[in-house]
Automatic annotation (TrEMBL):
Alphabetical list of InterPro entries matching this protein: KTSC_dom (IPR025309)
Domain of life: Bacteria
Domain KTSC, chain residue ranges per copy: 3-59
Pfam families, A to Z: KTSC
UniProt name for this protein: KTSC domain-containing protein
Length: 68
């Protein structure tokens, strides 16, 4: 199901970083995210709900600028 909040997300297993691009245009990288957490997010029915419950406020993050 497409998310109304999250436009896309990708994971770098080597660095354990989860990059989340929101529909608002804001982009964040979440640090030290376990691969199992990323896989669970991929399988989740609601990406936004999963994000709010399991990632938001649980991992260190930084905002990144997305080039047009």
């Amino acid at each position: 199901m497409p998310s109304t909040v999250i436009q896309s997300f990708e994971y770098d297993a080597r660095t354990r970083q989860l990059h989340v691009l929101f529909r608002s245009g804001r982009s964040y990288i979440y640090q030290d995210v376990a691969g199992e957490t990323y896989q669970a997010m991929r399988r989740s029915f609601s990406k936004g709900e999963f994000f709010n419950e399991h990632i938001r406020d649980k991992y260190a993050f930084r905002r990144v600028d997305v080039e047009d």
